Amino acid sequence: MNRSHCKRFGVPLSFLVAATFAIFCLGSFSAAKPASSAQDPSKMVAATPATGEEYEIGKLRITSPWMRATPRGATVASGYMTITNMGKEPDRLLSVECDIASTVEVHEMSVSGEVMKMRPLEKPLEIAPGSVVELKPNGYHLMFSRLKQGVNQGDKVRVTMVFEKAGKVEIELPAAGIAAKGPADADKMN
Ligand SMILES: [Cu+2]
């Protein structure tokens, strides 16, 4: 083909690529919401957007990791994510480490009278085969205590998680705003 022909299509083509990319991004975002509450893990895998904030380790998939920025002087923070077990055997979260906190525990919420309280799990968090375990506000969460530094919005906090079968994985929790109710990405879109 001749040169002028190529040139004529240069601009519309790049526009087309940009538009396709934008549509893809929007599509990924809208697909992300139902995925976090999906109960069928096979469906969830198909719907998981390739945002880069997902990790596969053995038979486990970790999606939508996030946390909130901490208020000034805070000594604790909590972290959230969704863990899917695509395997046929249960796995358990044995330990979690993070440079910004002296201890990291998995907490659960319980209602005592009319007050919601949190407490460390007595046994390691189990991810049953084929199940989706959500760590989210008012539910299971990673509890970072004795913080060595505050967390600012936009930070990516590196966390090492050790699973009984899947082994060790290092993930990043992007920090949303102090009052965020969902992952950092959702926060940005709002
Ligand atoms: Cu807690």
Write a compact overview of the structure shown:
This protein is α+β, with helices and mostly antiparallel strands and 190 residues long. Helices cover 25% and strands 43% of the residues. Helix 1 (3-37) runs antiparallel to helix 2.
CATH architecture: Sandwich
Radius of gyration over C-alpha positions, nearest whole angstrom: 20 Å
First-to-last CA distance: 46 Å
The average pLDDT value, as a whole number, equals 79
Query: How many E strands?
Result: 11
Number of separate helices: 3
Largest sheet: 11 strands, mixed
What oligomerization state is this entry in?
single chain
In CATH terms, the superfamily is PCu(A)C copper chaperone
What percent of residues adopt helix (DSSP H or I)? Answer: 25-40%
The helix/strand class is alpha+beta
Q: What share of residues are in beta strands?
A: 35-45%
Keywords for this entry:
190 residues; alpha+beta; Immunoglobulin-like; 11-stranded mixed beta sheet; 43% strand; globular; disordered N terminus
Furnish the topology, listing elements before pairings.
Blueprint: H1 3-37, H2 41-47, E1 54-57, E2 60-68, E3 76-85, E4 91-98, E5 101-112, E6 115-120, E7 125-127, E8 132-135, E9 141-147, E10 156-163, E11 167-176, H3 184-189
Parallel strand pairs: 2-11
Antiparallel strand pairs: 1-2, 2-3, 3-8, 3-9, 4-7, 4-10, 5-6, 5-9, 10-11
Helix pairs in contact: 1-2
Bound molecules: copper (II) ion.
